[in-house]
Amino acid sequence: MFVMKKKKVAIVGAGIVGASAAYVLSKEPDLDITIYDEGIGQGTSAAAGIISPWLSKRRNKKWYRMVKEGAAFYPTFLKEVVSGQDIPPAVYRKVGTLLFKKNPKHLEDLLKIGIKRREAAPEIGSLAILSAEEIRSKIPLYTGTASALWASGGARVDGRSLVELLLEKAVQNGAQLKKERVEALGITEKNYRLQTQIEEDTYEEVVLAIAAWLPSLLEPLGYKVDIRPQKGQLMELQLSQTDTHNWPVIMPEGETDIIPFEGGRLIVGATHENDQGFDLEIDEVMLQEMLAETADLFSHQLKTESISAYRSGTRAYTSDFAPFFGHVPGMTGVYAASGLGSTGLTAGPLVGHELAQLVMKKPTVLPLEDYPIERYITAEC
Ligand SMILES: Cc1cc2nc3c(=O)[nH]c(=O)nc-3n(C[C@H](O)[C@H](O)[C@H](O)COP(=O)(O)OP(=O)(O)OC[C@H]3O[C@@H](n4cnc5c(N)ncnc54)[C@H](O)[C@@H]3O)c2cc1C
Predict the structure, then answer these.
(1) What is the mean pLDDT of residues 285-310?
(2) Residue 48, Cα to own-chain centre: how many angstroms?
(3) What is the 8-class DSSP label of residue 202?
(4) Which of 6, 166, 194, 316 is the most exposed place for a label (fewest CB within 10 A)?
(5) pLDDT at 99 (0 to 100)
(6) What is the whole-number distance in angstroms between the Cα of residue 338 and the centre of ligand 1?
(7) Ligand 1 lining (C-beta closer than 6 Å)
(8) Distance between CA atoms of residues 381 and 372, nearest Å
(9) Ligand 1 closest atom vs CA 233
(10) What are phi and psi of 163, to 5 degrees?
């Protein structure tokens, strides 16, 4: 009997981008998928979990298109991942977003922006400026006096649980998962060679979904890679006897956001540290100072004693803050994405899907020319 030889594809990095690509590709019967992931410093499992890109003041239209499409892609993609069942609320839930501004005029401006943007992004849902009383009806612990802009389409996602779910499905579909670091990427006559500390194997196609670590595999091959790491830290709080299931995501002005999950669990953070490289050490004092900033909204009810865990991870940025994905120049069959910065959890499933489309030689949703990889990965002369 003739057995068709499957094409060997490696996915390096299993954060949200790599895990999404792996899931999509694992469904292809003619592909043999192997996933490599070291996991240390992963942005996805450290992330806060906010999916609410529409009201950002950032003006980059291509970035906005990616995150807008990324947010819209989430429910459709997840519904497919769970085969039409209910999406587990501990993984992803549309709970709405509340945006605070110190100046009430800015709230009005933001409402106008939201109404305009909703024409092309109906997933923003309903928009309204809520009074402190109305906020309290959603978040009984709220003690502030400020109003906030409500967007019902905002969601929160637990990056770690989502990646676990995607990898579980990929493995069920026949993919192999190796929790190993790829030490080197080599080029053979017809294939690409991946080397770990344990073994070495060759692949016809390789997807590099290694975010801030992209230079480590491409620079030894003579490429210059415009990617730098940014450290992010946050904390988890466990509130007793508090039903946080329906709380919206809370985004005050500044760095400290509050992301409620099931069972009284809150995420508070995150820092954006540009001078720390790949360091992952927790600075408890810095985080506790961030927690103190929530006093305006919760009059010191979010206490340091409620902190149940700290997390830190690494974001990836290009020098102009723009994300990219596509074919690695000069390496047929090698694809990469990076530079997703602080909104990579929002864009990640779509970007992973796009990389999978490239492997399958199918069209992408986002135009490749808007996210030009060749601007950030160049051959060093
Ligand atoms: C504290 C924090 C809060 C954030 N909050 C949000 C948020 O609320 N909303 C939002 O949209 N985004 C948020 N982000 C950004 C988002 O998390 C990232 O942009 C996104 O997760 C990047 O996904 P990725 O798959 O590209 O990379 P990562 O999730 O970083 O995954 C890359 C993986 O590749 C692995 N790897 C690297 N090199 C190798 C190698 N040689 N061999 C094998 N494996 C390797 C790493 O170990 C890692 O597991 C946050 C980030 C941080 C750090």
Answers:
(1) 92
(2) 9
(3) E
(4) 6
(5) 97
(6) 9
(7) 12-18, 36-44, 46-50, 159, 181-182, 209-211, 213, 217, 232, 234, 269-270, 313, 315, 340-346, 348
(8) 20
(9) 1
(10) -60, -40
Mutate to test the pocket of ligand 1, among 11, 16, 44, 338 (most ligand atoms within 8 A of CB): 44
Strands lying side by side in the sheet with 200-203 = 184-187, 192-195, 200-203
Q: Which residue has the tokens 């953070």?
A: 269
Task: Name which of 67-71, 297-301, 326-330 the model is least confident about.
Answer: 297-301
Nearest CA to ligand 1 atom 2: 47
Give the separation between CA 84 and CA 202, rounded to whole angstroms. 36
Name the one residue in this structure whose structure tokens are 């240390």: 40
CA of 207 to the centre of ligand 1 (A): 15
Using alpha carbons, list the distances in angstroms from residue 92 to 37, 47, 159, 165, 249. Answer: 23, 13, 9, 11, 12
Q: What is the rounded distance in angstroms from the CA atom of residue 200 to the CA atom of residue 194?
A: 6
From ligand 1's centre to the CA of 315, what distance in Å?
A: 6
Closest ligand 1 atom number to CA of residue 341: 19
- Write out 265-323 in H/E/C secondary structure: EEEEECCCECCCCCCCCCCHHHHHHHHHCCHHHHCCCCCHHHEEEEEEEEEEECCCCCC
Give the tens place of pLDDT for each residue, 167-218: 999 999 999 999 999 999 999 988 999 999 999 999 999 999 999 999 999 9
Which pLDDT tens digit goes with each residue over 98-152?
Answer: 999 989 899 999 999 999 999 999 999 999 999 999 999 999 999 999 999 999 9
Q: How confident is the model at residue 381 (pLDDT cuts 50, 70, 90)?
A: low
Which residues fall within 8 angstroms of residue 173, CB to CB, at 6 or more apart? 23, 26, 27
For atom 34 of ligand 1, the residue with the nearest CA is 13
For residue 358, the model assigns a pLDDT of 98
- What per-residue confidence (pLDDT) applies to 57? 78
**What does the pLDDT read at residue 357?**
98
Q: What is the pLDDT of residue 1?
A: 66
Q: Which atom of ligand 1 is nearest to the CA of 337?
A: 26
